[in-house]
Specification:
The complex is a heterodimer of chains A (635) and B (309). Chain A is mainly alpha-helical. Chain A contains 24 helices and 3 strands. The longest helix of chain A has 35 residues, at 333-367. With 309 residues, chain B is an all-alpha fold. Classes of the chains: A mainly alpha (635), B mainly alpha (309). At the A-B interface, helix 14, helix 15, helix 16, helix 19 and helix 20 of A face strand 1, helix 3, helix 4, helix 5 and helix 11 of B. Strand 3 (545-548) of chain A pairs parallel with strand 1 (57-60) of chain B.
């Protein structure tokens, strides 16, 4: 019964792929997105079934046969589903569902401009590849699906082919991702050479000497770090994520960068036991660097989606800070809590950041702008979009009782009381960065929804279509639910996912969790507070409310639109006072990031005259040939 | 259990009733005295609030529903935050990490107020929120570092545990001084009231508020001011108080603690009020600059804590 379930989303997505090949523009899109929604639901169900089933049942494995082109070779790959993959599949399912529902209306704005069939094909392949990355139990299948994910994401980022910016961003992404996946392939080949088998199962318990361990650690950290956009390797993300269609941005920021988290957990912790302490220190340091850098950059952005993209770097930093800190503290139950909280943050960030990208998409859909300098005043015209972006912003800023609070609170708390000096300092910087996140998203809310617009008229603006509102409300309600009922996912993550990774004493962790659950009294108190204030508001509204014009010092010359702040000048004073951190950033850029990027960009410039797409197809074909050759050699 | 909850509610209610009177005392005996005025009666804040609650509800034409929800939510959240602080130095509902919950609740309450102001679309609210958030960011770096010192030295972040275990080392004392300054910044009194500066930006985020909604905003502000002050008192002076009262038997001990903490909070509140009266308002850049300069205090404390002092 269970065996066939793992294949169900794959079959569904393949059907969707064939359907969108047969059908034309609009119909192809509808069928593809409908089938990807169904596939996402099956993923969610599958994940929940795995996570709640009896842990003593051995992990589910099943076989997938792929016909390879060369010499009628029928290669059998095993797929497996354990607590770790199931948790990530749950996240993928949730973001995929919302993004697919949202896309049915949103992508129609490209009708007649871009090929919707092309979108449907790549979108389905993108979902499929991410699913395969999570369930593959074989090095070769992992590499193939990882490469497929990279390439389809490239096509989705460059979907607006007419835009020069989008094409360049996509190319930058592709080049950086390829160098990352090159490192990953290299390390996987080392593992293959050492174990003699491509199956993950044979990698478990592999004896490695110290040099190989550190080599693998370096390769995996840089390779997956590029995909995760950890700070020195983050440069592609702020360009690429804003350029994709918004529901794809939600998937990219909400899920794709987390496949790197999965990769790190799977290869460096679950399969190959590297030195936990050193690995933890490296991950936590990169994490805290990303936290501070990403959030402090996000507050000065004026492009709504770029602001969110930088904030994604910060939030992925929180995740790695939790995982790294957990590994440093390892036998200590606090470390287990930190790792569970980091995984909970994967889910929370996926939900809230996915939702934020969707709301930015809704603004683009109605006003066709993402410039925070000219937007404004949309709250009255798009109340549902405003409400959902308010909830998502509060959740990502870590405001109780929403989801983001719990995971951030747990990461910070477990690192602070660990009395490990370095981790305590990291955690105090994380507290600071969480306020930066708050400021960045208040700026987004204020400049996009609340303040006065600089564009002439908003009277034609109305709420986005029902499917888009539904997708937003789905994620918004999850933001609230994950905060109020946090102990259910937290317990499941600790007992089913983390126990798959490391060995620990469940009893001492449960005692800690019991103490943590005491926060529920306060969450209940807060819920009572919120409900009672809403009741008071409803009671107040029954009385007569007099509407008055806005007060501008009694003159007509002081036009509201000229008095306010634009997106550029929101935090100028802060930026100026704390310029040392921004100056530091400048030097990091000059000496660390720019040389690497300019190397890539020189490469791009050389091919500037050639049609980008031709060039990319060349890369695609070469990669597939490489993988095929590798396969033939391996088999 | 019911008794415990009832006790907690009573302690919080007493504080809630006292807060406007405390403001009245500050206005009469600190501000007016220093400025050589007669000053308003002690109950003036109550009179103001009662007058505001009787007024009509005015809502600007450009406002969204958030305009009405925010002040009430902000006030109630700050009241809920009062339940986190252990005024009797032992909180039956306390748990490991309630100190961080306290910080986030405080941020929640103040940004709700900001969002309410912003939802009126008045451009002055934008200036105000930009100032308030810049101040928040700067002061939170301050706070984060001080908390790191306390966490390193106490290895616990439960408010009741911190407030009842005395640890006296140079680093912790410096961290306490930093917390006092944090309370001063967050109290939004004169040098740091740049977000609601009346002469410059016409009360900032409060500009469109009047009547009952303004009353809720003022109450929320007062409660937050009291919260940061008593947070300092509980964390920094609580250990000394608990050391002094440790010989007293249990039920009376908690009462004594409560009275002592209230007294010390009042004194600190008035002291901060005095410090504020003798200052003029900072310009935004100077406010941030001063905070940045004083951030060296928690940094030094952290360095001391790391080397083991």
């Amino acid at each position: 019964m269970i065996t066939s379930d793992v294949l169900l989303p794959i079959y569904l997505l393949i059907i969707g792929f064939i359907l969108s090949l047969i059908l034309r523009d609009s119909k192809a899109l509808d069928s593809a997105l409908f089938i990807s929604s169904v596939a996402s639901v099956t993923m969610i169900l599958l994940a929940i079934q795995t996570l709640t089933s009896d842990p003593t049942i051995p992990k589910i494995t099943t076989e997938l046969q792929i016909l390879l082109g060369t010499s009628n070779l029928l290669k059998t790959f095993t797929l497996s589903l354990d607590g770790l993959s199931a948790f990530f599949i749950l996240t993928l399912g949730i973001v995929g569902l919302a993004s697919s529902i949202y896309g049915t209306a949103y992508i129609k704005r490209y009708l007649g401009v871009e090929s919707l069939r092309f979108y449907s094909l790549t979108y389905i392949l993108f979902l499929l590849s991410m699913y395969l990355v999570l369930v593959s139990n074989d090095i070769v299948l992992f590499i193939i699906s990882w490469e497929l994910m990279t390439i389809t994401a490239f096509f989705l980022i460059a979907f607006e082919r007419t835009s020069e910016v989008a094409r360049r961003a996509a190319l930058k992404y592709l080049l950086m991702s390829y160098s990352g996946s090159g490192l990953i392939i290299m390390s996987l080949l080392i593992l293959y050479l050492l174990s003699g088998s491509t199956s993950f199962t044979s990698l478990k318990g592999l004896n490695l000497d110290v040099t190989t361990q550190y080599l693998l650690m370096l390769l995996f950290t840089v390779g997956f770090g590029i995909k995760a956009a950890l700070v020195p390797m983050h440069n592609w993300l702020p360009d690429a994520h804003p350029e994709a269609p918004s529901n794809v941005s939600a998937l990219l920021s909400g899920f794709m960068i987390k496949t790197a988290v999965y990769g790190i957990l799977r290869f460096t912790i679950s399969l190959v036991c590297l030195n936990y302490y050193v690995l933890g220190l490296v991950l936590a340091s990169l994490g805290v660097l990303s936290v501070v850098y990403g959030t402090s950059m996000s507050i000065i952005q004026t492009d709504s989606k770029k602001l969110m993209a930088f904030s994604s770097i910060g939030q992925i930093g929180y995740i790695f800070l939790g995982i790294g800190g957990g590994l440093v503290l390892y036998p200590n139950p606090l470390g287990i809590i930190a790792m569970s909280a980091a995984l909970l943050h994967v889910l929370n960030h996926a939900v809230s950041k996915g939702l934020l990208f969707l709301t930015a998409g809704s603004i683009i859909y109605r006003v066709n702008s993402r410039d925070l300098n000219i937007l404004g005043g949309l709250a009255r015209y798009m109340p549902m979009t405003f409400t959902s972006s308010l909830i998502a912003s509060l959740s990502i800023s870590g405001i109780p009782p929403l989801g983001g609070f719990i995971s951030k609170w747990l990461i910070i708390l477990s690192l602070l009381i660990s009395t490990n000096t370095l981790l305590v300092i990291y955690a105090s910087l994380a507290i600071f960065a969480s306020v930066l996140t708050t400021s960045a998203f208040i700026k987004y809310l204020s400049r996009a929804f609340l303040s006065n617009p600089n564009i002439s008229s908003l009277s034609h603006v109305k709420e986005v279509p029902t499917s888009m509102v539904l997708a937003q409300l789905l994620l918004a309600s999850l933001c609230v639910l994950l905060g109020v009922l946090f102990y259910i996912p937290l317990n499941i993550i600790t007992s089913r996912t983390i126990s798959n990774l490391v060995v620990f004493d469940l009893n001492s962790v449960s005692i800690l969790i019991m103490n943590i659950v005491n926060i529920l009294t306060y969450i209940a108190l807060l819920l009572i507070t919120i409900t009672s204030s809403l009741v008071i508001v409803i009671y107040t509204l029954r009385y007569k409310v007099r509407t008055v014009p806005l007060w501008t010092f009694g003159t007509k010359d002081l036009l509201p639109s000229k008095l306010g702040l634009d997106g550029n000048s929101y935090y100028t004073e802060f930026e100026r006072t704390y310029s040392f951190s921004y100056v530091l950033r400048h030097y990091v850029y000059e000496f660390l990031i720019n040389p690497v990027t300019s190397m890539f960009m020189r490469f791009v410039k050389a091919y500037d005259k050639v049609d980008t797409y031709l060039y990319v197809m060349l890369i695609v074909i070469t990669t597939f040939l490489t993988v095929l050759i590798a396969l033939v050699v391996v088999v | 259990m019911v008794v415990v909850y009832l006790g907690l509610i009573i302690t919080v209610l007493i504080i809630l009733v006292l807060i406007p009177i405390l403001d009245g005392i500050e206005r009469k005996f600190v501000k007016a005295r220093i400025q050589s005025r007669v000053g308003p009666p002690i109950l003036q804040t109550y009179y103001d609030l009662i007058k505001l609650f009787r007024k009509e509800l005015l809502v600007p034409s450009t406002a969204s529903k958030l305009f009405i929800i925010a002040p009430i939510l902000s006030f109630f959240t700050s009241v809920a935050t009062l339940f986190v602080v252990p005024y009797t130095l032992s909180n039956p509902l306390g748990f490991e990490g309630d100190l961080i919950l306290f910080i986030y609740l405080l941020i929640f309450s103040s940004i709700t107020a900001l969002l309410g102001g912003l939802s009126s679309s008045n451009p002055f609210t934008e200036v105000s929120s930009s100032r308030e958030l810049s101040l928040l960011m700067a002061s939170e770096l301050f706070l984060g570092l001080s908390i790191a010192v306390i966490a390193l030295k106490q290895s616990s972040l439960s408010l009741s545990k911190i407030s009842s275990t005395p640890v006296i080392t140079p680093s912790v004392i410096l961290a306490y001084i930093a917390l006092l300054y944090y309370a001063f910044i967050k109290s939004a009194r004169t040098p740091y009231d740049i977000a609601e500066a009346e002469p410059e930006i016409a009360s900032g985020y409060l500009i469109e508020y009047s009547g009952p909604l303004l009353a809720f905003m003022i109450l929320g502000n007062l409660v937050r001011r009291y919260l940061t002050t008593s947070f300092f008192v509980v964390v920094a002076l609580g250990p000394t108080v608990s050391l002094a009262t440790s010989v007293i038997p249990t039920p009376i001990k908690e009462l004594t603690n409560y009275v002592l903490i209230l007294g010390l909070s009042t004194l600190t509140y008035l002291a901060l009020g005095t410090a504020s009266v003798i200052h003029g308002r900072y310009r935004v850049i100077h406010a941030l600059d001063s905070i940045r300069k004083y951030t060296s205090v928690p940094i030094i404390a952290l360095v001391l804590a790391v080397v083991g002092l």
